[in-house]
Backbone:
């Protein structure tokens, strides 16, 4: 009978597992169907756009302005009226220089001196933009523009000029300036200025060589690392400067061909004469995979901790198969990346790759787009729904309620409808297919769970999982390729612009991407606040309207030209410039992960506030919430900049050390003792500290009596009987084993919470930590630049401060639980754990393995030491003052006087060492030659210039 029951049980489990697999397969089929339709629509729009672009256009009409050819992408050619008159002279100077973004740019300056009566003066006064045509009629002007010209979006000629004249009779000076950022192709091939050649424009007409009477000069200056090749004999030449005088008689001698080349790229392209070992870039894809697997395992271990009993250790049975599955997936990905030629899986963990929309013609939706859409939809839309549902379930509240279900389902519906508005009528079929398949998948999931096809335990999850399926079916499809609709700016320019409807719909669509997490944050955090601080729906809407724009990456470096601001923001959040290019890589998931990090930390702090506001009691999940907070702080940089931190094995080591160190700081075996110490009232704390002060006073009295009575006993001025009587009177108030008794008393008196709430202690410790780490925080904030928004600034630039603040908050919140018996002892354990994490996370920041490395490590350890020691002394003083005693009653400062001399010597030596390292680093930076940075391992490129 028992065997038959066991067989039936196994068959039922197999049936439930089969039903769950079939359900997942059906959902995946619905999403694939909608994705195929979505990709076909994107391909059709790309083909329509290319067909419209290649449609033959009529010639420019008679009413076209003179500057229309400049807008078409050609270098403007002036007419006879744009030629300077007699006695004119001028100069053109080209200067190649570095930009703050570590790229190269060419700065071209024009200076033209004309007579006051020259007709060209009045033309330039009235229309300064006419200098674009005038510059082509100057000697050397047209070849200069051709060498730098990159189309209408990156012209090689100036578009404005300034006219200066001291008085009505003086000569007129016309100046203009133009900057052009050099592309990688231009720096590799070099800049060629054929000043003695003739050119043909796009119509095939010959642009004649310009030579005018008077003094006309053309010069070029390049920085260190560049070289110049000159044809003919220049008027003046130095190592990196060439000056040519373009005379009217130089038409036949061929003078005036100059080429500027970047020597570094040329030299690295040649084979080395002496074979040397290649220098691999720092980090590697296997290390990135290792870091990602460790991050996933540690995160899952932290989540499994919520299944354990309060204060206990997590169940290890689910963790073992989880680790095994993670290792199998990691090994499979590594093998696939090593032997597959179609798709490099691990390239996602290393930089990014730009994929043009024109590639959708051959392959409507590549595997990278489908994978990235699934990841973005899961991170931005599905996880908020599951987080709200699981949080409410843990509180015992029914979720989702009717109102909350509508709030959670609205962002997905808004996403697909706004995408339809952006794309126009051609996307109607794809949008309907997406809605129908998502609704079908949600209904199937709801019906299967309500009918108990997957077991009775899954029946209460029917509505939440159906809601998550609806959200996933829409978001994972729409975020693969965002719809777009463009129109030609004019029938003759060939420039594409967003339509008004598409540009208008892009703003609410952009805000919709972050709305789910802001909604989830408000649904979870607001019920945890005190009744007086809870806000209604109107207040939540107002707060959401503030939080969504605050979390956007407004300062993104992924910029494009001639497009709305939403295009660059979509490139940062969704990994694509709509209608232009797609960006693949882990860096695309980073902005969404940063928002998840901020929301998770806010939820943890709200939970700790809600459960730590009662005196003498912790909440049921105080320890695991603090463990999760420490892990989030350690993973801040990995989540904020995964492409920079994942490719280092030290990142995986840091995450493991953070997880193990958190359990080392908060051992489960101290739970009962910690609760007893935390439950001590303020009066009991005062009595214990008074007893400790009394014991320390008698101990100090015995020490001083022994010291002072040596001389009196030696000269017999103090009788032995009297000495024995005084000694016994000093020993009588204490126990026989005074030292052990004092240590126990100190551990109890200085190991409790002093009758305060855990939240107030945590806030006080975090405030003291923030004050103690203010130098490092201010220095990193002053040096921080180039971050896209507030979440990235907090997770990347403020990562060390986050680690310190998390450990400081845990020090105060769970002070009785920390390993150690006294404030200084607990701070010592805290210093050991957080210093190890900080040093391992510092490795990716250290690019130069010389002086700055030692300086950074020294400053980081010094800041951690100041933070730990300062927090310990502050906490000891806080505990003593709570008992209405002076700090000196417990801490004997006289014994520290003997350490003043060695400590002062050590501090002076440390300051001298720091000053020496700083001076050496500054001198090296000042005297070091300018070097071209080596090519990055990342394949990320800038957005295309145009169609």
Residues:
């Amino acid at each position: 009978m028992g065997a038959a029951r066991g067989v039936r049980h196994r068959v039922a489990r197999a049936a439930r597992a089969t039903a769950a697999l079939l359900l997942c397969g059906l959902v995946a089929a619905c999403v694939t169907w909608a994705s195929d339709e979505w990709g076909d629509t994107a391909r059709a729009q790309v083909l329509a756009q290319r067909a419209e672009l290649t449609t033959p256009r009529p010639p420019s009409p008679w009413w076209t302005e003179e500057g229309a050819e400049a807008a078409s992408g050609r270098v403007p050619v002036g007419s006879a009226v744009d030629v300077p008159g007699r006695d004119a002279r001028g100069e053109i100077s080209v200067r190649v220089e570095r930009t703050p973004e570590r790229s190269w740019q060419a700065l071209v300056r024009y200076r033209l001196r004309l007579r006051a009566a020259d007709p060209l003066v009045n033309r330039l006064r009235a229309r300064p933009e006419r200098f674009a045509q005038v510059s082509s009629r100057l000697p050397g002007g047209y070849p200069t523009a051709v060498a730098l010209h990159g189309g209408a979006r990156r012209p090689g000629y100036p578009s404005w000029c300034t006219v200066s004249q001291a008085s009505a009779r003086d000569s007129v000076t016309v100046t203009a300036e133009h900057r052009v950022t050099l592309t990688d192709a231009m720096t590799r091939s070099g800049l060629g200025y054929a000043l003695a050649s003739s050119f043909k424009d796009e119509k095939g007409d010959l642009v004649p060589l310009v030579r005018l009477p008077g003094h006309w000069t053309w010069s070029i200056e390049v920085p260190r690392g560049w070289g110049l090749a000159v044809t003919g004999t220049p008027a003046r030449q130095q190592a990196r400067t060439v000056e040519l005088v373009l005379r009217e008689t130089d038409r036949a001698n061929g003078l005036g061909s100059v080429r500027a080349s970047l020597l570094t790229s040329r030299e690295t392209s040649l084979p080395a004469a002496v074979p040397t070992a290649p220098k691999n870039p720092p980090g590697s894809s296997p290390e990135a995979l290792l870091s990602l697997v460790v991050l996933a395992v540690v995160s899952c271990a932290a989540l499994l901790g919520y299944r354990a009993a309060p204060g206990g250790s997590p169940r290890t049975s689910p963790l073992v198969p989880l680790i095994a599955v993670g290792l199998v997936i990691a090994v499979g990905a590594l093998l696939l990346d090593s032997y597959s030629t179609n798709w490099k899986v691990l390239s996602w963990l290393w930089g990014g790759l730009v994929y043009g929309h024109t590639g959708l013609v051959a392959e409507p939706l590549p595997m990278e787009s489908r994978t990235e859409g699934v990841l973005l939809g899961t991170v931005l839309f599905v996880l908020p729904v599951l987080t709200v549902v699981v949080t409410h379930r843990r509180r015992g509240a029914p979720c989702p309620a009717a109102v909350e279900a509508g709030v959670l389902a609205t962002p997905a519906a808004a996403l697909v409808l706004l995408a339809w508005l952006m794309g126009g009528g051609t996307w109607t079929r794809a949008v309907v297919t997406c809605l129908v398949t998502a609704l079908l998948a949600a209904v199937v999931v709801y019906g299967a769970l309500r009918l108990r096809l997957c077991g009775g335990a899954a029946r209460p999850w029917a509505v939440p999982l159906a809601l998550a399926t609806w959200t996933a079916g829409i978001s994972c499809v729409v975020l693969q390729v965002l719809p777009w609709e463009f129109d030609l700016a004019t029938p003759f320019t060939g420039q594409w612009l967003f339509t008004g409807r598409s540009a208008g719909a892009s703003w609410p669509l952009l805000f919709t991407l972050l709305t789910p997490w802001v909604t989830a944050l408000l649904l979870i955090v607001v019920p945890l606040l005190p009744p007086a601080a809870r806000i209604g729906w109107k207040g939540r809407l107002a707060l959401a309207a503030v939080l969504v724009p605050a979390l956007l990456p407004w300062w993104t470096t992924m910029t494009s030209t001639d497009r709305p601001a939403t295009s660059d923001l979509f490139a940062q959040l969704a990994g694509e410039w709509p209608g232009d290019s797609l960006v693949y890589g882990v860096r695309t998931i980073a902005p969404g992960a940063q928002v998840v990090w901020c929301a998770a930390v806010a939820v943890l702090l709200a939970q700790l506030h809600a459960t730590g506001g009662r005196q003498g009691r912790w909440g049921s999940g105080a320890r695991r919430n603090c463990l999760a907070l420490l892990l989030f702080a350690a993973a801040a940089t990995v989540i904020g900049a995964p492409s920079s931190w994942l490719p280092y094995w030290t990142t995986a080591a840091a995450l493991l050390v953070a997880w193990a160190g958190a359990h080392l700081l908060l051992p489960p075996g101290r739970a009962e003792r910690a609760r007893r110490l935390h439950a001590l009232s303020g009066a009991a704390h005062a009595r214990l500290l008074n007893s400790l002060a009394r014991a320390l006073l008698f101990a100090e009295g015995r020490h001083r009596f022994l010291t002072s009575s040596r001389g009196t006993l030696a000269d017999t001025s103090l009788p032995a009987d009297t000495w024995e009587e005084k000694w016994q009177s000093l020993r009588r108030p204490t126990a026989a084993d005074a030292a052990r008794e004092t240590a126990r008393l100190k551990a109890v008196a200085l190991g409790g919470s002093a009758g305060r709430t855990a939240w107030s202690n945590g806030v006080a410790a975090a405030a003291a930590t923030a004050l103690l780490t203010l130098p490092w925080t201010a220095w990193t904030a002053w040096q921080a630049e180039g971050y896209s928004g507030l979440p990235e600034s907090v997770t990347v630039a403020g990562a060390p401060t986050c680690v310190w603040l998390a450990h400081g908050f845990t020090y105060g919140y769970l002070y009785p639980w920390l390993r150690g018996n006294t404030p200084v002892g607990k701070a010592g354990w805290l210093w050991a754990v957080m210093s190890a994490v900080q040093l391992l996370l510092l490795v990716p920041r250290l690019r130069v393995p010389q002086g700055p490395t030692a300086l950074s490590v020294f400053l980081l350890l010094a800041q951690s030491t100041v933070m730990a020691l300062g927090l310990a002394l502050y906490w000891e003083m806080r505990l003593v003052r709570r008992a209405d005693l002076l700090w000196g009653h417990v801490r004997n400062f006289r014994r520290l006087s003997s350490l003043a001399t060695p400590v002062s010597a050590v501090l002076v030596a440390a300051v001298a060492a720091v000053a020496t390292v700083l001076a050496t680093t500054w001198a090296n930076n000042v005297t070091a030659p300018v070097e071209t940075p080596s090519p990055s391992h990342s394949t990320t490129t800038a957005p295309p210039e145009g169609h």
Remarks:
- The mean pLDDT is 75.
- The longest helix spans residues 2-54.
- The longest strand covers residues 104-114.
